[in-house]
Structure formats: structure tokens, C-alpha cells
Amino acid sequence: MGKVSRDVLEKIKKENIKPIPKWHFMLKKSFVWNLFIVNILFGSVGFAIIIYLLVNNEALLDVSLVGNLWQWIVLVIPILWIILTLFFFFVAYYNFTKTEDAYRFSVGRKLLINIGITILLGLVLYTGGLSEKLNDLFAKNIPFYTHTLDTRFKIWMRPEAGFLAGEILELNEKEFSIRLLDLSGDEWSVVYRDAFVKGRVVLQKGEVIKLIGKSSSKGRFAASEIRPWQGNGRGMQER
């Protein structure tokens, strides 16, 4: 036995060095991969909700709902969701670089793999209708969600600019009036005598609608157009 080998053995005995068990490496490998998967899933959820919010935001194509380009960016683009999605994407990318197979891929390929998986899973979630369900779930369980992360709230809760949304509490068809509970929890008296009602709108108690018109005074609104909240108008975000 050579001198180097003897020195190594003596050091092992002296310092009582023990081999690291195999399960330790397996656990570490599993932990890194699980982190990668979790962050990829979060990023995919973010991407799916971004698509959902953009597709269901009429202001994306109807510029009459906003005043200028800056207002369009602020009111239409789900900036916070984009930031969250990018955060989860880069965390997932970092975790991927720590896997034992990462050395096989260049930086560019690692990025493409992460981007591809995120987009693909996001599209699956969106086309499967899960992005809408998740958005509604977040709105019901996270108090600040609707006000900060759902861009439609910013568009349709501007009564001073002629935009209002909420749930019908009471309907008087003879007087063409609606008692409305808006997305912030305030009640409004809405007159819709001369309003254009979109075909998908069902004017009945519990229906959620969007209004274009004019706020004549505090708590009073004259509607010139009534639109469904989404799809058939059901499913208002929780306040």
C-alpha cells in the first residue's frame, strides 16, 4: 500500500469519517426533482390564468373601454401574474440545473425545455377549463385576489368612468330598474330603460353582469349597455 493510501486510511480512522449512505443521495435527487416539478406546475398555472384573463378581457381588443395606451397596459395586462409566472419559471430552471442530468444540456436547451413544458402544461390547463376554475377558487379564498390579480375588476369597477359590474339582487322589469351589488360590495340602483342588452345576458336575480353607462349620483347608475360577466354571465368573483 502506497504512502498516500495509508495517509488517507489513517485520516479516516482518526476523524471517524463514515461513507455517506446511498439513500442520502437518492433523497437529495428526489427533492431537487420534486422542487423542479412543483415550480413548473406553478408556472404553468400562472401561464394558463394569464391566457384566461386576456381572452376574457374585452378591453384587449375593445379600445373604447380604456383611454390611452398606458391605461390599456395597466388595466388589461395581468402584470402581477406575469411576474409570478416568471418567478416560478426561473426557480424551476434553477432546480433543473441542479439535477444530475443537467450537464448534458446547454443553457439554451435548458431554457427551451423549461419554456416548452411550462407553455404546454399551461395550454392543457387552459383548454381543459382548469384555469377558469382555479381563478375562481383563488378569488373565493384569497381576499385581495380579485382587486389585485384579476384585471377585469380594474376594467369594470370604474363607475366614475362609466363602467360597473356586479350581481343582480332585485329586478323590476316594469320600471326597467335593477338593484345591483357591485364587486366591492356596494349597492347600486341601475336604470336600463334605453340600454342595449347583449344576447347572452339573462336578466334575473343572481346573474352577474357588466354595465356601460353613466353614474348620475352616488349609488345610482344609468346603463346604456349590459354585457354578461363571462360566458353566460354567471360566476362573479368573490369580494
Commentary on this structure:
The chain is elongated. The protein folds into two domains: about 130 residues, no CATH class; about 70 residues, Nucleic acid-binding proteins (OB fold (Dihydrolipoamide Acetyltransferase, E2P)), CATH 2.40.50.140. It is α/β, with parallel strands linked by helices. α2 packs antiparallel against α4 and α2 packs across α6. It is built from eight helices and six strands. The N and C termini lie far apart (about 75 Å). β1 and β2 form a beta hairpin. It has a five-stranded mixed β-barrel.
**Percent range for β-strand residues:** 15-25%
Radius of gyration, in angstroms, nearest whole number: 27 Å
Average pLDDT number: 82
Oligomer: single chain
Q: How many structural domains are formed by the residues?
A: 2
For the terminal residues, how far apart are their CA atoms?
A: 77 Å
Major beta-sheet overview: 5 strands, mixed, barrel
Class based on secondary structure composition and strand pairing: alpha/beta
**Can you tell me the residue ranges where pLDDT is under 50 for at least 5 consecutive residues?**
231-239
The count of β-strands is 6
Output the strand order for the largest sheet: 1-2-3-6-5
H and E order: HHHHHHHHEEEEEE
Q: How many separate helices?
A: 8
Instruction: Describe the global form.
Output: elongated
Helix coverage percent:
40-55%
